[in-house]
Amino acid sequence: MSKGPGLFSEIGKKAKDLLTRDYTTDQKFAISTCSDAGLAITSTAVKKGGFSTGDVAVQYKYKSTLVDVKVDTESNVSTTLTFADILPATKAIASIKIPDYTAGKVEVQYFHDHATFTSAVGSSQQPTVDMSATIGTPSFAVGAEAGYETSLGTFSKYNAGISVTNADYNASIILADKGDTLKASYVHHFDQLKRNSTVAEITRRFSTNENTFTLGGSYAVDPLTTVKTRLNNHGRLGALLQHELKAKSILTISGEFDTKALDRHPRFGLSLALKP
């Protein structure tokens, strides 16, 4: 919506996605269909441990309005309405969940060439108010966010971050958990499509004096196949193989191992997403 900095939630997101996105230890199957009129339907089934769940999601887009409705196996209905450009450079998002009406919220996002702002208010009688702001440019941004519990009169969170981005790399530092956690990450891309990348992340938790260092990356074996790996200093090793069976239909096989306790059974996951 603008050529300015992204939202605060985007600081550190590239590293997080590279280290966590598509890794799973569940069995998941999803099938989607869409029409030229802007209607898309996705049915998903997930088996986790000895339990199976599923949901059906319907998405409809008309001009700058997007409607998402999701119904799960426990009869929970989640609805999200997104209105883009109802005011210049502004996006509004309203969500509601049935039967838990208190889980809904209304969010407004404002985009400027040198700043972005968000404000979200829950639908309960004593709602949580979340706000965030970033200033800068697409290549350099500084931001902060805070959450206020009106029922308690206290802040539930306050975080700050900084990011530097260009075509080849992304670096970020985030101070989170009310100042208790410091996280620094660096992502480097080796090709224009960003399919071959490496990532390093360091997390310091001051209250427990704990440090976590994670290395990871992705490698494109061929135009249809990608391999991703990650390893932290606690010995947790993860890997996945992702193959595009046909256009937008993806098969993902992933696993996680504890290299310091090889007698433990590794965990594996399988995901199949089919699109016409």
UniProtKB/TrEMBL annotation:
It is found in: Membrane. It holds the Pfam family Porin_3. CDD domains: Porin3_VDAC (cd07306). GO terms for molecular function: porin activity; voltage-gated monoatomic anion channel activity. Keywords: Ion transport, Membrane, Porin, Transmembrane, Transmembrane beta strand, Transport. GO terms for cellular component: mitochondrial outer membrane; pore complex. InterPro entries: Porin_dom_sf (IPR023614), Porin_Euk (IPR001925), Porin_Euk/Tom40 (IPR027246). It comes from the Eukaryota. Its main location: membrane. Belongs to the eukaryotic mitochondrial porin (TC 1.B.8.1) family. This is Mitochondrial outer membrane protein porin 2-like. It comes from Stephania cephalantha.
